[in-house]
What does this fold into?
Amino acid sequence: MEWIGLANYAVFMAIFICIYALLSLGLNIQWGFTGLFNAGIAGFFAVGAYTSAVLTSPAAEGRLGGFDLPVPIGWIGAMVAAALIAWPIGKICLRFRSDYLAIATIGVAEIIRLVIKSEDWLTNSARGITDIPRPFGDLPYVYSQLAYLAIVASVLFVAYLMVERQIAAPWGRMMRAIRDNEDAARAMGKDVPFRRLEAFIFGSALMGLGGALFAHFNRTITPEAIDPMIATFLVWIMLILGGSGNNRGAILGVAVVWIIWSMSEIVTDQLPHEYAVKAKYMRVFLIGLMLQLVLRFRPEGLLPEPQGTRAEMSEKSK
Amino acid sequence: MGALEIINFYLVPGIVIGSIYALGAVGITLVFSILRYAHLAHGDLATLGAFLALGAVTLGGVSPYVALPVAMVLTAAAAVMIDKAFYAYLRERPKIVTVMASLGVALMVRAIVQVVWGVDSETYTRGIVRPDVWFGIRLRDRELITIFAMIGLVLALHVFLQQSKWGKAMRAMSDNPDLALLSGVDNKKVVMLTWIIVGGLCAAAGVFLGLNYELKAMMGWTMLLPMFAAAILGGVGRVEGAVLGGLIVGIAEEMSTLFLPTEYKAATAFAILLLMLLVRPTGLLKGKVL
It folds into this structure.
């Protein structure tokens, strides 16, 4: 029965890859197309996860909600909540260079973590929120996993199509113009801070959606569900390695990095306990090093950003 | 609550943690203004300094005050090496790429600390130190030393920046890099000197944090936000501003526990940061906005 376990594991991995791919697409809108440095991905992820959890879980004692709403409403709520958090931060920080946004998003992620850990009435603090409904969760294990994979894959596909469309549109061209030469774009009459704010909010909403999908997959969400620094950093390395500015690259990077990351975990878990803990930190060291190597030797990533618009490309080939 | 209690339980701890933030914020403001990027590995470099001092204390059996200069020298060397290995070749690329590299370095440095020293909290010395009472104000030796060491280090830095040839070169790079380079300032030497100073200050911040509280792998990362808030509050590029900012952030954090739950102490620095960016991004003493 070895292969059934293996297939189950593959499905499990695929679901995680789809969830991380949403984060990576969100970051691609922010960094790849607009040049915004968001170092608080885990914060927006957590906001999405908790919002959807509160909206859709059955009523519970001692905390806000659950409102027992349909799952899609939870997902929309997750996107709206993440966008609402992104709005004031972007409003304040996007007038300056992206360094300021980097610091502020680190702060936001930290504050969100504190709120989740200490606000009993809202998030049930350390005990977390349980009984989050999962679509098709009543089916037997294998079918339920497969059904959820189909759902996240189609959500990812729709998100991918929408982002691709938006980037090919004049809006996408304008964003790249702002990223590559802010002064020129401003001289053309583009409202640079406002456009950046749009990209920041769209990207954050996608990250919130990723969080919601994660919460419904696990059926529970606790403050310790993800390590904020590692999650944020993994998404960064996924995008940079895959190719920032290229949506297919963003998704490819997720698959490559997530497979390396989980496989290395299997290897280190075989070690005796005292080495296993150290090996865990060695893995973190190695992904940090991997980022440095990619930045140095292949800054454009595995799939580089296509140059020019589609119309121009076909023009050139004529 | 009397005035003495406010001083003893809020103001004094605020000034102590503020002095520690000040040491870090001075480094951040130097990197921000001379090298022109936000250095996100700053906190973790401080962690490294603190644990290097711990290494000197456990291996050499010396007091933490003797270990401090050792840690400062070693951390300065580490900072220079990190710059050579990971930041130097990104100099021609947009600065934000270096910010990203520094986030990676933060993770790498912390991973090294966790591998070498483990994840448990440590202290330099065991046992409880009873504070001395001066006219009703309770002060521990280590608290006085922290404050005076901060003042001493910043004064020395100030004299260096104002009087020496290389200090002037550093200020010139901060004010107008193109003009400085045309006037024959050696960019490589200025960058190296900046990292030596910044590494030393980082280590000092880390050691004093470890001395007054405890040593943890995450100690530096949690200091990053208050240090940046302090640097921006004081005005980017202004050393005296960073000290002022550090003290204000430290005192505000401690005072905030009078009104807010203790868990939200860390939110104070963030609020100060956003407020300054909103109303006066140049900081209290007119600094730069990058």
Summary: The CA atoms of residues 14 and 28 of chain B lie 20 Å apart. The mean pLDDT of chain B is 90. The beta strands of chain B are 132-134, 137-139.
